[in-house]
Amino acid sequence: MRFRIVAYQQQQVVTLALDAASFDDARAQARERGIDIVSIRQQWHWFAQRRRKEPPLDLVLFSQELRSLLEAGLSLIEALTTLSRKELNGTRRQLIDVLIRQLREGKPFSTALRAFPAIFPPLYIALAAASEQTGDLAGSLGRFIDYRTQMDQARKRVVSAAIYPALLLGVGGLVVVFLMTYVVPRFSRIYEEFGSNLPLMSRLLMEWGGLLDAYGLEILLGLVFFAMLATYLVRQTRHRQGVLHWLLGLKWLHGLRSRFRIYALARFFRTLGLLQREGIPITTALGLARELLDEDGRVALDHVVLDIRAGIALSGAMEKYDLAPPVAAELLKVGEKAGNVGEKMIRIADFYDEEIARWSEWFLKLFEPLLMLTIGLFIAFVVVLLYLPIFELAGTL
């Protein structure tokens, strides 16, 4: 990132530009140069940044490399220095250099990571803080790598399952748009002389074609505007969550809503299990995993935390507020008796992931042919309406 600094130097006010990983890093660089800062702000060059956008830090790769260096016997500062030297990306190198500088100032690793919340999630920081108590940062990094790998695999299964239906829907939609915006208007000109002799559905279709023929540009600009607005709103997290919550609230999507909840619970229990295995207190772990649930789940989780603080067992509290279905609740009870709740939570997440995989495979086997049939029938319906007047004319000859 580039920062614009207004400073007082050599008895005059000067303006400088610095490349730094954060505001704190920019201030530190200015202090090292003996500059008295008057004001500092980030420079935004939107078009230039889009052209020269550097890839963000790959957290899994960074953790793998750091873990390997730590296991080889290097200290944390030595390992980070090695990663900084091999890094060709300027922004990532600056970020690692800031971490090294804060470690040399005596700050814990977890505190240094907190300066970059957009790069290091709370879970990562919590694992680093837990490793500072045990002295096993390499082990914590290994468990985080396994966690992210499993989460990514579950996400990839869902995305891969949706690729073909999305492609089919896109191609079918383009064919329908071509028929409705190019073919229908041209047929409407041919059938103008038929007037009211056309069948009702054909007449409505021809009226749509005439409307497009007369106001096609205005309609196109309006559709483009609404598409851009919808894209902007969907990209905003709060709007995307609101739309998703509304869709899942529809009665005819009850089955999809239950599967989405199972998917969210799988991520929730996997995160809890990882934090429990690191020895993080259960109330703290629940707070870190809270964002993985929807709004209703967060409200229920707040009640669970209150019950736990009141002395109620975790399994009982989560079953009470419907965050642990019967099978999960029984596994949690077994884990509480055996003292391995974290392991049981991981097992619950594996069980739910397997259930989602089986359901996705079944759903796609049913959905794909139904989607093809629906698109084919709609296209055939439009084509029949277009040629129906010709058939009737031929029958009168």
Automatic annotation (TrEMBL):
Tell me the keywords, alphabetical order.
Answer: Cell membrane, Membrane, Transmembrane, Transmembrane helix
Membrane spanning residue stretches: 158-184, 214-234, 370-390
Q: Which InterPro entries match?
A: GspF/PilC, T2SS_GspF_dom, T2SS_GspF_sf
At the top level, the lineage of the source is Bacteria
Q: Where in the cell is it found?
A: Cell membrane
Record carries keyword Cell membrane: yes
Q: What is the membrane topology noted in the UniProt record heading this document? A: Multi-pass membrane protein
Query: In its keyword annotation, does this UniProt entry include Transmembrane?
Result: yes
Q: Which residues does the UniProt record annotate as the domain Type II secretion system protein GspF?
A: 62-185, 268-389
**Family of this protein:** Belongs to the GSP F family.
Q: What is this protein called?
A: Type II secretion system F family protein
